[in-house]
Amino acid sequence: MDRRQIKTRKAILRAFRALLEKKRYDHITVQEIIDGADVGRSTFYTHFETKDLLLDALCGDMFHHIFEDDPCPWVGRDDELEGKLAHILWHIRDSRSDLSGILLSDSSELFMTYFKAHLRGVFEEYIALFGEAVPRDFLLNHLTGSFAEAVLWWLREGMTLSPEAVAGYFMKITGKR
Amino acid sequence: MDRRQIKTRKAILRAFRALLEKKRYDHITVQEIIDGADVGRSTFYTHFETKDLLLDALCGDMFHHIFEDDPCPWVGRDDELEGKLAHILWHIRDSRSDLSGILLSDSSELFMTYFKAHLRGVFEEYIALFGEAVPRDFLLNHLTGSFAEAVLWWLREGMTLSPEAVAGYFMKITGKR
DNA sequence: ACGATACAGAACACTTTGTTCGTTTTTATT
DNA sequence: AATAAAAACGAACAAAGTGTTCTGTATCGT
């Protein structure tokens, strides 16, 4: 791939993210993005058909590496899920992509949708741990939703607690352990 | 208040809600709203300064009567909270304002924010029921968030379950009872 | 050094926004 | 029923944003 393409693509995404931390998604204009990225108008539209697709691309970039399956030392342990959750939190805190800024922005709901979609995959593996007192889909929905909320709470608190502590709280509150 | 004002205000809100069920909030234009409401352009702007304030007004209308404190037969009983939650669900299902359509729309995240804000008030009263194993704010956040998610799940399922059943599931899943 | 291609920048037709203002209709009151 | 006040209409407006097309220039991979 051409270096120029990569450079401008990154510049656009960076400018977009900077704007997202300042104002709401639907108040951001293409003009502001290309001004921030210092990129021509036509160039923007060759890279991204619409602003919505730009958002998709940003979410892809941000969440992909967090949910990559990397070597996991918790496999087989009885706190395997808790370990994985802590791992996700750890990634968010130390991520170069500065996820926390985006998740705390006025457009956070937008990103929560993507976040939950990824989380669902994680919890699907461990659904059996939580019994069968309620419908499977209800439970899955509950776990992903409430973990995402917990993460947001943690970010709002300034991430003073350790990832392990938050994961522990979450497991406790959902009745496991 | 002038009848005309009430009439046009209602017409605008109705048109807005009809549009929200079809397309996303930030894709809706003022032009579409006033066409749907059959109202002059200047009239719209005398009623609502911006589209965001129109949204605020809509949320106010929709959620207000649900969280009104009306005669509550569960006071003092040990399933008082469960009763109140069922009551809320009952309201949503039978509401004339057709909340379900809005909460299932592409802009549902927007309304969830308002919904949660109101729910927080409900849970604040009963926070003591859930122990002190985790920080109060964490817990409050968890309860409001996950109940809102449960409601959304219920709506998506077509409200086949009874309000009492959903409230029961929720209490079970949060560890109470 | 070469052709290919990505970019800049300007111009464009078009849509949307929010405001203004004179006119017409409806309302509450007498 | 007559009247003054209030509200809605509708046209026109500048300003801003959208998405496309074009030409010339700079940069890339080979």
For the largest interface, the chains and their residue counts are:
A-B, 26 and 26 residues
For the CA atoms, what is the radius of gyration of chain A?
A: 18 Å
The assigned structural class of chain A equals mainly alpha
Large-scale geometry of chain A: elongated
Count of DSSP H/I helices of chain A: 9
Overall pLDDT metric of chain A: 91
Could you estimate the helical fraction of the residues of chain A in percent?
55-70%
Q: SSE order of chain A, as H and E?
A: HHHHHHHHH
> Any guess at the CATH architecture of the largest domain in chain A?
Orthogonal Bundle
| CATH top level assignment of the largest domain in chain A | Mainly Alpha
Number of strands of chain A: 0
Detailed description of the structure:
Two copies of one chain form a homodimer. Chain A is mainly α and 177 residues long. The first copy, chain A, folds into two domains: 3-51, Homeodomain-like (Arc Repressor Mutant, subunit A), CATH 1.10.10; 60-174, Tetracycline Repressor, domain 2 (Orthogonal Bundle). Helix content of chain A is 68%, strand content 0%. Chain A is built from nine helices and no strands. Chain A has helices at 3-20, 30-37, 41-47, 51-67, 80-94, 99-103, 108-126, 136-156, 163-173. In chain A, helix 1 (3-20) crosses helix 2 (30-37) and helix 7 crosses helix 8 (136-156). Chain A binds chain B through residues 25-26, 109-110, 112-113, 133-135, 137-139, 141-142, 145-146, 149-150, 152-153, 157, 169, 172-175, and chain B through 25-26, 109-110, 112-113, 133-135, 137-139, 141-142, 145-146, 149-150, 152-153, 157, 169, 172-175. Chain B binds a DNA duplex (30 and 30 nucleotides) through helix 1 and helix 3.
